[in-house]
Amino acid sequence: MTDVHFDKIALIGIGLIGSSIARDVKDQGLAREIVISTRSAETLKRAEELALGDNYTLSAAEAVEGADLVVVSVPVGASESVARQIAQHLKPGAMVTDVGSTKASVIAQMAPHMPSGIHFIPGHPIAGTEKSGPDAGFLGLFKGRWCILTPIPETDAGALARLRAFWEALGSRVDEMDPQHHDKVLAIVSHLPHIIAYNIVGTADDLETVTESEVIKYSASGFRDFTRLAASDPTMWRDVCLHNRDAILEMLARFSEDLAYLQRAIRWGEGDKLFELFTRTRAIRRSIVEAGQDVDAPDFGRHALDEKKS
Ligand SMILES: NC(=O)C1=CN([C@@H]2O[C@H](COP(=O)(O)OP(=O)(O)OC[C@H]3O[C@@H](n4cnc5c(N)ncnc54)[C@H](O)[C@@H]3O)[C@@H](O)[C@H]2O)C=CC1
Ligand SMILES: O=C(O)C(=O)Cc1ccc(O)cc1
After folding, report:
1. Please, what are the domains in the chain?
2. Keywords of this protein's UniProt record, alphabetized (predicted)?
């Protein structure tokens, strides 16, 4: 069995994701010591008030001294800056990972700074909410959710097994994927939905014929679902758009073509085309529910516990 216990874990960035990791690590006793570092003094103070770790510092370099595992949970555009700050302070043999929503760009930003002997393994938990900051995190966020690891050619098999076991201890199911493939898949399943949500809520907000109070008053579930996504952190999503540019533009081009098809079918009253598409998409939703990936279901995450038991 791979040991998932670490002597010292350094968490760089303590927002929704970093603080959820802190809560799980603490709950499960996966580290003798948790050190937390973040850029703003205010956030660091809040992390301390919430007792998310054992030690706190504004210096990422100081935080990683002697750490066996370093988890970087900052907006993807800040990856290079963090890599530069920590590189010369890492303990030989330490493992460095991240949780960023894009992978090729994070690798390009961080890998060149990693000294030899450091195990750098990028990762991405497919779990989160529209909220941000240390108060938004919670115990069990990763339970039953996928975590994708995107090893690089230098990745050592033993270190990879240890990181996989770490995420499994947090209740995740782990997949490995090529970084470029990850970026394409996430562009369609996560990045585009957020961009579409930002766009539709922006459009509604811009309509001169509809007042803001009507948008709020009549926001039935359809629009409401979009407003949740469109409330996501602006810094994080600006960075995702800028750092997964090519894959997002490719998917947006496909999306626009398909939207034109739908627009045409509506204009020409082609009900059969609309019916065929809506039937196909309904089946996708059913597959998601059957695969146990419907996070809104009351028993979501249960299968992860069932798997552990068996
Ligand atoms: N929010 C979500 O649902 C998910 C987010 N992610 C990824 O996780 C990462 C973190 O996201 P969240 O925790 O949601 O963000 P957040 O906004 O809640 O927290 C970000 C943290 O990074 C710190 N930070 C920002 N810039 C920094 C810098 N230059 N140097 C050091 N620290 C810095 C902030 O002080 C804060 O502690 C992002 O890369 C995001 O793409 C991954 C999965 C889900
Ligand atoms: O809140 C939601 O619906 C999300 O989609 C959360 C999320 C945001 C970004 C990621 O990289 C992964 C998950």
Report:
1. 6-177 (3.40.50.720), 181-309 (1.10.3660.10)
2. Oxidoreductase
